[in-house]
Amino acid sequence: MRLGSGQRASARERLATHMRRLRADAGLSQEMLAELSGLHRTYIGSVERCERNVSVDNIERIAMALQVDVSDLLAPTY
Amino acid sequence: MRLGSGQRASARERLATHMRRLRADAGLSQEMLAELSGLHRTYIGSVERCERNVSVDNIERIAMALQVDVSDLLAPTY
Fold first, then answer.
1. pLDDT tops 90 at residue A58
2. Average pLDDT in the B19-33 region?
3. A10-19: b or e for each residue (b if 16 or more CB lie within 10 Å)?
4. Is A9 an interface residue toward B (CB < 8 Å)?
5. Max CA-CA distance within chain A?
6. Minimum distance, in Å, between the CA of residue B15 and any CA atom of chain A
7. What is the separation of C-alpha B11 from the centre of its chain, rounded to a whole number of angstroms?
8. Among residues B39, B68, B50, B41, which one has the least CA distance to residue A11?
9. In percent, how much of chain A has pLDDT > 70?
10. Is the CB of A12 less than 8 angstroms away from the CB of B69?
């Protein structure tokens, strides 16, 4: 993350934070989330490291796999 | 949109719906939103027609230009 004080998380960082938390809460590995979303395991890993400029269609696939609303994945993080 | 009864709007459709409404509310043309977001006018038009698999970085630029939170652009539409 490496956020300075007062700096807001970018959309990529929000997505990564929510994914890691929701995936952990659901007891899913990156492999399992990849399987559920139809994406590749290494892709899931790179999204969780903020390395990917993910498309809206893939954000939607990840949200469906995590059983949350797509907007929840971009909600503010505190 | 072409949504059947009971069918939820896709993330692309949500984004397009929110963009058109927020842009109209702000009295902005597609050209003006393009200028504010640093994207091309024809790109803005294609996003509003659900033709583009927009990236999270560009969703963020559009949100900043429209002065809304990025998650608002993917919120459920009713």
1. yes
2. 98
3. bbbbbbbbbb
4. no
5. 37
6. 9
7. 10
8. B68
9. 91
10. no
Across the interface, of A54, A56, A76, the residue whose CB is closest to B12 is A56
CB pair distance less than 8 Å for B71 and A71: yes
| pLDDT digit string, tens, across residues B5-20 | 456 899 999 999 999 9
Residue B59, number of CB atoms within 10 A of its CB = 24
Nearest neighbour of B11 by CB, restricted to A10, A70, A76: A70
Per-residue confidence band for B78, with pLDDT thresholds at 50, 70 and 90: confident
Reported as a pLDDT band with limits 50, 70 and 90, residue A78 is: confident
* Cα of A59 to nearest chain B Cα, Å: 8
What pLDDT shows up at residue A1? 44
Q: Is A53 on the interface with B (CB under 8 A)?
A: yes
Of A11, A63, A69, the CB nearest to B60: A11
User: Among candidates B30, A68, B6, which has minimal Cα distance to A14?
Assistant: A68
